[in-house]
Amino acid sequence: MTTVFLRSMNQLCFQAVRRQISRSSTRHLSQIRLKFPVAVSSSTPLQSRSKALLLQGYTSAEFTVRSYCSTEIDQTTYEHVSEETLESLTEYLEELVESDNVPEDADITFSTGVLTLQLGSAGTYVINKQTPNKQIWLSSPTSGPKRYDFINGAWVYRHTGVTLHDLLTEELSPIFQMETDFSKCAYGRSESDD
User: Fold this and answer.
1) Percent of the chain surpassing pLDDT 70
2) Which residues contact 142 (CB under 8 A, 6 or more apart)?
3) Can you spell out the DSSP letters for 74-125?
């Protein structure tokens, strides 16, 4: 666990937190503890104490931030993993499109690293390889655009820690009016889940 000491409450913003976390050069899933000085009273000078914060419904003396940083994967591994992921998602989506609860004009195509799922009035999902960044990008009509990094054997959105497969399960189950499970597709579970 890394502790980052902030000089003032003004530093407690996401950019400052990100800078502090990146300086700590964390290369794996870790937790960062933030501490900062607070004024005890108007007559007492600043003292170095932990302040209780009410963040995300939790009160604590320290604010814990999850920092998701992928270990660098080589180009060959990225190509193999991303292609296998997209092919597996395509196969599972084709099964879903052939089911009885699919929107009328649903269609799926996969070509040159781009997977497109058209769901009529429910919108269009596009999942594609982003080779220069070694990422998979998702464009969702429900949650918007997201960029996924390969971390611990799964494609993870760094801002929330949610995997691509979990997001697809959550968003597509209501559209297909059935319980879907994308975690059974290739790289649908992180190595820490096994």
Assistant:
1) 62
2) 123, 171
3) -HHHHHHHHHHHHHHHHHHHHHHHTSTTS-TTEEEEEETTEEEEEEGGG-EE
Report pLDDT digits (tens) over 66-87: 444 445 789 999 999 999 999 9
Contact predicate 120/103, CB 8 Å: yes
CA-based nearest residue to 107, from 167, 116, 86: 116
Q: Give pTM, 2 decimals.
A: 0.64
Long-range Cβ pairs for the range 95-101 (8 Å, 24+): 96/172, 96/176, 96/180, 99/176, 99/178, 101/176, 101/177, 101/178
Residue recorded with tokens 């992921």: 85
Placement of tokens 């292609």 in the chain: 83
pLDDT per position as a tens digit, 120-153: 999 999 999 999 999 999 999 999 999 999 999 9
